[in-house]
Amino acid sequence: MAAPTPRTQIADELRAAIASGTLAPGDRLPTEADLVAQYQLNRTTVRRALDELRREGLIVSSQGRGYFVPKHERLVWDTSQPERNTATDVSPSDAWSRQMREQGHEPTEAIEVVTQHPNELVAERLRLDADDLVVVRRRTRALGGRPEVVADSHYPHAVVAGTAIAEPGDVLPGVYAVMDEIGHGWVRHHNEVRARAATMPESTRLRLVPGQIVIEHVRTSYTPDGMPVRCTVMVARGDRTVVTYDQLEA
């Protein structure tokens, strides 16, 4: 096994200190100058090690104050909760937002609606050609003004054109009610979950360090006859989100 590089050694030792609690949430890390002196390395190497930990969400930086172990409250996201919302007295009222309220937070949501050609993933999930059109409801969900999740739901344009789904703003009493009314209500979902590095657009929307780890949840929804009518790609901060789901024994 190859010997660790100086950058890796610094990152590994700080990572271990955070994992053991030696560096607890809220604690300030040694300064860059202190780490340079401790490890007898140049500032560039030290900074690269710290950037690695920032991308992992293990530390945060504050201009003029240094680096800290964040005080992150874990947000539990139960992906098995249904999305058949019919509420009209609260917005946003999707499953994630309802769960955040149950955990004592007040979510907000910014919505952008666009019509475009599907990317490769969406085209495959919705069984569309590259020159077909989809209506995309792009949502950025925040807690206390801090973006936590982006959720982009893609619908075949041929299915939802002329409905409230294709219009700006929230849909009340919910997208499912509209889909059910036009004869395309879903009855099952196929879910895919993976951890990966954030893309640059996602880093911008979620205010992340480029390359920071996120959790991606792709949900494809099907009608009773097996037609895919929605593909939602949700991307959540990996440093704050715990994904759970319930499973019934057969």
The low-pLDDT segments are none
Helix proportion of residues, in percent? Answer: 25-40%
Number of strands: 10
At CATH level 3, the topology of the largest domain is Chorismate lyase
Q: Which word captures the global form?
A: elongated
Spatial strand sequence of the major β-sheet = 4-5-6-9-8-7
**How many separate domains?**
2
Which CATH class of the largest domain? Answer: Alpha Beta
How large is the share of residues in beta strands?
25-35%
Any idea what the radius of gyration is? 21 Å
CATH superfamily of the largest domain: Chorismate lyase-like
Quickly count the helices: 8
User: Which structural class fits the helix and strand makeup?
Assistant: alpha+beta
Description:
- There is one protein chain.
- By secondary structure, the chain is α+β, with helices and mostly antiparallel strands.
- The chain folds into 2 domains: 6-68, Winged helix-like DNA-binding domain superfamily/Winged helix DNA-binding domain (Arc Repressor Mutant, subunit A, Orthogonal Bundle); 75-244, Chorismate lyase (3-Layer(aba) Sandwich), CATH 3.40.1410.10.
- Helices cover 28% and strands 30% of the residues.
- It is built from 8 helices and 10 strands.
- The strands form 3 sheets. A 6-stranded antiparallel sheet has the order 4-5-6-9-8-7. It has a two-stranded antiparallel sheet with strand order 1-2. The chain has a two-stranded parallel sheet with strand order 3-10.
- The longest helix has 15 residues, at 6-20.
- The model has no long low-confidence stretch (mean pLDDT 90).
